Give the backbone structure.
Amino acid sequence: MSRGKAWALRLAGIAVFVLGWEIAGRIFGDALFAPFSAVIAGFPATVRDYHLFAELAGSLRQLLLGYLLGCIVGIVLGIMMGRSALLDGLLQPWVSMMFVTSIASLVPLFIITFGFGLMFRVTIVFMAAVWYVLLVTYHGARSVSPDLLQTARAFESSRLQTFFKVMLPALYPYILVGMRIGLAHAIRAMVIAEMYVIVGFGGVVYNAGVEISTVSLLGALLTIMLVGVALNEALKWFAHRTAPWYSERQQLSN
Amino acid sequence: MASIEAHNVCKTYPSRDGDVVALDNVSLKVTDSEFVSILGPSGCGKSTLLRILDGLTKADSGTLLMDGRPIERPTQERGFVFQSFNLFPWRTVRGNIEFGMEIKGVPKSERHSVAQRLVELVGLTGFERKYPHELSGGMQQRVGIARALAIDPAVLLMDEPFGALDAQTREDMQDELLRVWAAARKTVLFVTHSIEEAIYLSDRVLIMTPRPGRILADIHVPFTRPRSESHRTLPEFSALRHDIHSRLKAVR
């Protein structure tokens, strides 16, 4: 499919969705489900009344901290588990359990342990992101081509050189995919955690809900969706720019 | 100028149906600037022998020498060319060719000039910045050969390098290799299962037989160099091919 056609289809998909939203909104009314036009018209007020952008910016700063920590730990542990049977055996049960554990169920425990502050919010985001980054990196590390590792050996490459010149480049596309999945989960977890303690962006959503303001509620949701998509697209663009050999060959850009 | 030799090399692999003797008391010697092929059917242990000579695989017993010194592990005195190319997909043509020099810490400017010279030698001018997946199989193996030559090895070990290529590309690559070999004057040990390829390229052909892997015969190829397409049609060429063919058939 050509680029132009793909974009036309995307825009058409968005148009249909917005139209459906508008019609549903007109049927239910502002109190139950504000139509798209009302949400857009009321958006400046939402931003003003709820300090939407300031709260969002604060939330994203803490998200970034927890997310980056999650990426670092996930990448390092993922590589170590992928290349060491000992660590794999020791850590695999924990990773499997944490991977399937709902982040929301951890929120009460972390509030008790860490309180309501920065530590709590960063920890939640960290816990949401780390397992995805770890697992994707782990599978990448296990699947590094033995032929390429042997080729490095044939050229007298030391273990350290092989790690940096073969292992890391081979893992790089996996790491970027893991980071993208981790980011989506980090954003979800951030909103959930903030709604519990009514701070930041999650606090805005919570308050708008309590005040039964669907115009502000939907405005806030639309904002976080757009932010999430923008961040995901930015990572995709970065992957495409820095690993052209991978994205062009695999078409894994979606 | 270099020589490489193996004495009484044995290698056994464990398998589900008991041990498989891949190599049984194999000895060979290749001397200065000689082009020698190891010819045999699949599974005769010829690739194992080549990998043992590079140090990539350990022999169970036997002696391996390069210029009289024992071979214990892979070094840059020997260059290896793989059947499946094994190019690094994240490196460009130039990046792949420079890999071995990077390992040795060769300065950047020198790496570039060596890579450029080899790009020209193997006929890849204009493709320096391409990634392997953008190249045809024949071009990928040109990169594989250039990468092995870039470390200026005394001995070139080639493991069925043209086995994955179509017939036409294969013959073109054989001529390319002879041209490159004439320019670089390396000692070459070339593994193949194509009788014609072995005769066309080599000074000597070592015939290997499987189960257990042994060297059956050491055949001198009398044709003059440089070789060209016309050699393939000589009656002597056909006779030699027929002779080798019947020898291989006899042990099946």
Q: What stands out?
A: Chain A has one domain: 52-199+221-250. Chain A is about 90% helix and 0% strand. The domain at 52-199+221-250 of chain A is CATH 1.10.3720.10 (MetI-like fold). The CA atoms of residues 55 and 200 of chain A lie 5 Å apart.
